[in-house]
């Protein structure tokens, strides 16, 4: 056991070996929070204080959960099988499957990911003839999820105006629809589990008695409902002699980046107060990053107010300066990144130790293109994830119908894909009838007469055949069979650009095989007809391709900054450091939004162990528009001595012709940061003295912030974010803008 604790500093040691009480570990990035949490689990078990079954650990991603299990198996001579370690969603899924009847769900209920949920909401609006301009589906989705995250069912939502009342009605109808289809969205997973635990005393007592230690990583990003869920599980009950569990939470208020999804740093304060946490431990030594990187992170986050206050230090040397590159355009930026990546690999770096991070998914395309052209293997986390690709969704829809025929989202997706002559009219008739009978689309088919009834009945027969023929097949063969018999394979074979899609479909079989191999360790789920299929489908919804980057060859990792949370890499490239992009234009207006962007920047910078590369482009193609942005204010917040600025050796005036004309300066010949910072683009005079980032007011739209500028003379225009009034391009010569 002493081995377990050998590599810990004094504070970490103290945290790992705390007596069984509630504790909060509040510490900055890279200070060993996750390591402490994992080691504590190992320590509790190996010192005989807790059985593996008595541990519940919540991580932020499935990848993190897997890593934790792998580390635990390395530290302990025990099987980690059956340990409750996972994400909130994963754990809730497990609980609901085990108690589906108590939770009012069929055993094979399906999970809607957020794209499925949006599709379901659109279908709902159509069914009820709701004007989707008045009730935009995305907003309604956000509204419903926000209510669920606040723990509110439709009856409990307070509605003071007609608009909200209508939204609440739609929320109610949405619930009915989901229940009828036996589907559960992400927020529902949590709320349903919470309600189950709250209302069902035997189930609650069972888990309260079972879990002695509850450990939560990335606690700063838990939302209210998750916090209440934890509170419920950790609570004891004097009457029945159930002692409460010990809650051990680790987090960093400076890395709270999910405010938009309802996460609340306030949970940390509430936790301290409500649980009378006697042990608050701070870790200040950073083991991850070289000094320059850490100093930059500290300097950036210092600009935020209301922090709980921490100061990170490291024993490691300053290391390399942070390289900052100013590119003419986004392609030049990507090319520079690729060249630096190649250099690192030549110097012996593993590609998987290199990460390319960006603020928005849309930025990955240019980077991917450059990597692809240079023949560098790469993998994208997030974005169009494997399980979100169209062909995979189609295949999954067939599988879902086999598991649960009442899943209308799946039904609507493939009833006429590949085309089998079922027109919009037939579908409308079916939907109409489904409303009348209050049954699922599938169950309504027999009620339909005439030609639509005949064609649809054929589809139903196809699904029934699939279900019968696959009942005894191992999962990968089942998937293979469905790909053929559904006609999906033939469809994509006939498609001109279908090759990649066919490869992806084969990959789905591989994913199924992989899933079987992994879950065999956890054999409980096997056996019952199609039960493993339901588990696989849940895995597909929950994991959404996270694991794809784990396997196969050594590849450069691409992901958004959000997805990089908790991870670390030897070298990190952070591109697109431009006003409007990072900080994001939607966040510039309010101070709170800006602070969240800064925390995101802090997360990005602190992912790097040895090298950090920052870059921005004078012009960028995004969403089909060329934008001219100024470099991000976050760059200005990094003290100059920590950086080395690299500019392509071209006169600035040639920017317009500079695309593709960039060449890499010989290594070692990088210029230092120029004495004068690069001129804003376009030059100041074009914007009549106004600058990007400046607050201005407009007679009609009110106050806004300039987020981009372009053109000159009579054509000079600025783009302004007016908050509620939207984002507008205005001609300077025409619009009367007042600085304020
Ligand atoms: P984040 O806030 O980014 O999630 P964290 O606080 O969870 O970071 P860890 O990921 O646990 O930090 O640790 C960062 C790195 O430092 C890891 O590589 C970890 O193995 C290493 N580390 C932590 N503590 C020590 C230690 N006492 N000695 C050596 N290395 C350590
Ligand atoms: Mg961590």
Task: Summarize, please.
With 740 residues, this protein is an alpha/beta fold. Strands 9, 10, 11, 12, 13, 14, 15 and 16 form an 8-stranded mixed β-sheet that branches. A 6-stranded parallel β-sheet has the order 3-2-6-7-1-8, sandwiched between helices.
Report mean pLDDT, rounded to a whole number: 84
Main structural class: alpha/beta
User: How many DSSP H or I helices?
Assistant: 26
Strand content: 5-15%
Distance between the termini: 63 Å
Number of strands: 21
- CATH topology assignment of the largest domain: Rossmann fold
Just name the CATH architecture of the largest domain. Answer: 3-Layer(aba) Sandwich
| Biggest pleated sheet | 8 strands, mixed
Tally the structural domains: 5
Which cofactor or ligand species appear? adenosine-5'-triphosphate, magnesium ion
CATH superfamily of the largest domain: P-loop containing nucleotide triphosphate hydrolases
Question: What integer value in Å does the Rg equal?
Answer: 27 Å
Binding site for ATP: 27-34
Region (Disordered): 670-689
Enzyme class: isomerase
InterPro entries: DExx_box_DNA_helicase_dom_sf, DNA_helicase_UvrD-like_C, DNA_helicase_UvrD/REP, P-loop_NTPase, UvrD-like_ATP-bd
């Amino acid at each position: 056991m002493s081995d377990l604790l050998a590599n810990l500093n004094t504070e970490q040691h103290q945290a790992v070996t705390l007596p069984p009480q509630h504790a909060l570990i509040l510490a900055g990035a890279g200070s060993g929070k996750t390591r402490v949490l994992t080691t504590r689990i190992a320590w509790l078990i190996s010192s005989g204080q807790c059985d593996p079954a008595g541990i519940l650990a919540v991580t932020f991603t499935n990848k993190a959960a897997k890593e934790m299990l792998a580390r635990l198996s390395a530290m302990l001579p025990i099987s980690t099988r059956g340990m409750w370690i996972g994400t909130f969603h994963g754990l809730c899924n497990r609980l609901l499957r085990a108690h589906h009847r108590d939770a009012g769900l069929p055993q094979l209920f399906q999970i809607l990911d957020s794209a499925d949920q949006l599709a379901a909401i659109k279908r709902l609006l159509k069914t009820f003839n709701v004007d989707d301009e008045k009730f935009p589906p995305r907003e309604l989705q956000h509204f419903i999820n926000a209510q669920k995250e606040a723990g509110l069912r439709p009856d409990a939502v307070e509605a003071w105006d007609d608009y909200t009342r209508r939204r609440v009605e739609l929320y109610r109808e949405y619930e009915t629809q989901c229940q009828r289809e036996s589907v559960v969205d992400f927020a529902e997973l949590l709320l349903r589990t919470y309600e189950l635990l709250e209302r069902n005393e035997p189930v609650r007592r069972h888990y309260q008695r079972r879990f002695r230690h509850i450990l939560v990583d990335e606690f700063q990003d838990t939302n209210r409902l998750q916090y209440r869920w934890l509170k419920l599980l950790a609570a004891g009950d004097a009457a029945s002699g159930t002692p409460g569990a010990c809650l051990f939470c680790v987090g960093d208020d400076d890395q709270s980046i999910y405010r938009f999804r309802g996460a609340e740093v306030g949970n940390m304060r509430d936790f301290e107060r409500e649980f009378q946490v006697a042990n608050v431990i701070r870790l200040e030594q950073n083991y991850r990053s070289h000094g320059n990187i850490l100093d930059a992170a500290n300097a950036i986050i210092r600009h935020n107010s209301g922090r709980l206050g921490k100061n990170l230090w490291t024993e490691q040397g300053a290391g390399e300066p942070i390289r900052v590159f100013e590119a003419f355009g986004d392609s030049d930026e990507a090319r520079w990144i690729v060249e630096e990546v190649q250099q690192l690999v030549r110097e012996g770096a593993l590609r998987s130790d290199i990460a390319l991070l960006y603020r928005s998914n849309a930025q990955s395309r240019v980077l991917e293109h450059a990597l692809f052209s240079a023949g560098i293997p790469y993998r994208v986390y997030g974005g169009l994830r494997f399980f979100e690709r169209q062909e995979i969704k189609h295949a999954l829809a067939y599988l879902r119908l086999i598991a649960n025929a009442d899943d209308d989202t799946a039904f609507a997706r493939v009833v006429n894909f590949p085309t089998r002559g079922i027109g919009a009219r037939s579908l409308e008739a079916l939907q109409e009838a489904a409303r009348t009978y209050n049954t699922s689309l599938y169950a309504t088919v027999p009620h339909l007469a005439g030609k639509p009834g005949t064609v649809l009945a054929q589809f139903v027969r196809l699904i029934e055949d699939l279900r019968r023929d696959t009942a005894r097949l191992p999962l990968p063969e089942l998937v293979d069979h469905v790909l053929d018999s559904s006609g999906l394979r033939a469809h994509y074979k006939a498609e001109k650009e279908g090759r990649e899609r066919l490869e992806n479909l084969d990959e789905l079989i591989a994913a199924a095989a992989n899933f079987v191999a992994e879950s065999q360790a956890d054999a409980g789920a096997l056996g019952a007809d199609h039960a493993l299929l339901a588990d696989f489908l849940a895995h597909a919804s929950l994991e959404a391709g996270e694991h794809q980057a784990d396997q196969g060859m050594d590849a450069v990792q691409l992901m958004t900054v959000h997805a990089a949370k908790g991870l670390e890499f030897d070298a990190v490239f952070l591109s697109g450091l431009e006003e409007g992009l990072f900080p994001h234009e939607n966040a510039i207006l309010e101070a709170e939004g800006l602070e969240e962007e800064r925390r995101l920047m802090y997360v990005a910078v602190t992912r790097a162990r040895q090298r950090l590369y920052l870059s921005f482009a004078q012009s960028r193609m995004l969403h089909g528009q060329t934008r001219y942005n100024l470099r991000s204010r976050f760059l200005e917040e990094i003290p100059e001595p920590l950086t080395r600025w690299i500019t392509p050796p071209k006169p600035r005036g040639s920017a317009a012709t500079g695309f593709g004309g960039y060449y890499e300066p010989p290594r070692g010949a990088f210029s230092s940061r120029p004495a004068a910072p690069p001129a804003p683009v376009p030059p100041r005079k074009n914007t009549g003295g106004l600058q990007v980032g400046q607050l201005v007011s407009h007679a009609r739209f009110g106050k806004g912030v300039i987020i981009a500028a372009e053109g000159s003379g009579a054509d000079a225009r600025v783009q302004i974010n007016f908050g509620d009034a939207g984002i507008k391009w205005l001609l300077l010569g025409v619009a009367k803008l007042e600085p304020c």
